[in-house]
Amino acid sequence: MSANNPSGSISPPPGSRRIRFSPEVSQTLTPEPNRHYHSSASSSDDSCDVKTALLPQPTGNWRPRRRRSGRSWQANAGLITALVALSVLFGVIIWENEGSDPLTDDSELLVTGKHGVVSSDVDVCSQIGVDTMKKGGNAVDAAIATAACIGTVNMFASGVGGGGFMVVRMADGMSKSFNFREAAPASATRDMYHKDANLARAGGLAVAIPGEVHGFATAHRMFGKLPWKEVWEPSIKLNSEGFRVTPTLESIMLKEEKFFYENRKDWSFLFSESTGNLAAAGDIMKRPEYAQTLTKIAEGDDYAGVKDFYNGTLAAHLTNAIQSADGIATKSDFTLYHTVVSDTVNTNFLGNEVITCPPPCSGAVMLEGLNIAEGLPMDDPSAPASHHYLVEVMKWLSAGRTELGDPFDSVVSDNALRIAELNTKEYAEAVRANISSEQTYPWQHYNPAYEPNDPKGTSHLSVIDTHGNAVALTTTVNLYWGAKLHDPVTGVVLNSEMDDFSIPGRSNAYNLEPSVYNYIQPFKRPLSSTSPTVIVDHNGEARMVIGGSGGSRIVTGVFEAIIKKLVWGYSALDTIRSPRLHHQLIPEVVYAEEGVREEVLAELEKRGHTVDRKKKGEAAGGSVLQGVWRDAERGVVEGVADWWRKGGKARGY
Q: Domain check: are 582 and 609 in the same one?
C-alpha cells in the first residue's frame, strides 16, 4: 500500500507507454495520452474529490448506480436456471479442507524453496523457471522461460500465437503492468460476425494480432537480467529434441480427435510416428517448426527476432496462414502492434497492498470484491453466513465486469469515472448496505450494465525470486487450440481472441444487451477475465502471487483464494486444493465443487441460492490457480500449483 494513498482506493496513473520494436526505431518509448483508468500511483486531491462526488449516499432502497441497456430488464423465469457451458477440467480432485476426508497424501505438492519458487500448469516448465533463476536470472527471466515452455507443452492454451497480461513487482518497490493482449486487425468491424458468430471461434477471421512475443520482449528489456536468447533456449531444446506428452495434453487432444484426424496434414506434430495415432501420455512429441520459430524470436541482443516476428519473415508467414484461412490480418497489423506498459491498479486489503493489471484485464473488479469483503462479517469460515457473503461479493464483482473494456476505446474512456468509482472504499461501503446476511436477490438487484462476457481457457504462472522480485503472468490463445489454426511453416497455434468481443444485436436469455464497451473496433483489445495479482505486505515485501485460468471463473477464483489465505487463514496447500464456489451473476447458480461441506451448501440454499453440486472431475469453480507465498518468519518461499485440476506442479530451490 502506497504511503501516499492511505484510503486504499485506486488513483490516476502518471501516464502509460507504448513500446514498439521496429526496424526504424528500436525500443522507443512513446508517451500515451492521459490514461483514464486508475493506478497504483498516488491519489491527487482532485481525483479523490471526483470519486466522492460520483457516489450517492445509500438511503432506503438505494442501490449502487449502474448503466442499463435500453432493453427490457424482465428476466424469463423459465430460463433462470440456464447454465453457461463450463470448461473441461481434468485430473483427480482431492479435498481435505472444510471437513471432507483426504483421499491421498498430497503434501508433497507443497513446494518450499529458500531462494525462489515457480508455480505453473506444467511440472517441467516450473523446473525450467527455477533453472533460469539458478543461472542468475530474476523473476522476469524465469516467468518468460516458464511461459515459453508452457506454450510448447500446453500449446492448446498458450504460445506465441496468443497474448496476455503480466504484473511485475520489483523488490525496490516498482510495479508495472504489461498488457500484451491480442488486438483486432485494422479491417475489423463491429458487425463482422453479425451473420455467423461461429466465425469468431475458428478459422482465420477469429485471429487477433498476437502479443505474447512483444510483451515478453518489452518486460525483458525493462527488467530482465539474462541475455534474451538464454531465456528461450530450454524451450527451443524441448521442441527440437522432444518432450513427454502429459495426461492433460492427451485428454485435450482426444476432445478434438475427429477434427485432428480430418486435418492431419496441418496438425501432424500431434501424431505418434510409431503408431500413426494421436500421441498418448508418455509419448515423445517434437515440434521442429516451432523450435525454428523460437530460435528466430530469440535472435539478437537488440531483439532482432522480435522485429522479425512483427515486421519480417515470421510476420509474412503468419499473415499468409491467417489470410489463407479467410482472415483479414495483414503484415501492417503485425507491424503496428504494441505493448501497453502502465502503472498497476491497487487497493489496500487488511494492511496489504494488492496489485493487478488495469482493464481490459478484470483485476480491477477483483479489487472491487476485496474492498466490499473487507467490511463484511465473514472472518470465520465456519459461520453460517460467511460463504453466503463470499458468493454475494462474487455477484457484485461480476456485475462490475460488465462495465469494463479497453480504455483506449473512446466509449470506454467516457465511462472511466464510473470504473474508478467501482474501486473506491466509499463505493464498497455503499454496496455492503445492499447485502443482506439472510438472503440473496434476483440478478436485477446487482444492476449489471450489460450481458457478462465469458472468456475461455488460459494458462497462469506465479514467481518469486531470491531478491523478492515477483511476477504474475497469464497467457492465452482463448479457446482450446485457439482458432483451430496451426501454421505448419512456423509451428504456431493461432488464437481465437476475436471471440472475446461482444457482438451487437444479440441479447441473451435475460434480455441483457451485449456490452457496448466490448464491441469490436480496429486495434481494440477484448475484455479479459484474467486477474494476475501480487500482494505486498506492510514491510513492502511480496507476500503472495496468485492468478489462474478458467475463463470467467478466474476472477472469482482469485478472489476466493485471497479470502481463504488472508482472511480465513488457510495454508498455502489448502488455498489451492480446497473446493471452490463460483457465481458469475448470470446464470443464477452457485457452482460448487465436490468437497464443499453440505452444511455450507444448505446455508446457501436457505438464503435463496440455487446450488449446482458438481461431481468429482466436473468443472465447478472452474478456475485453475497457481500460487506462490513468502513466509517471512521461516525465511522461505512456498508454492502450490493446481495439480488437482490441471496436473501442474510448483518447483523451488
A: yes
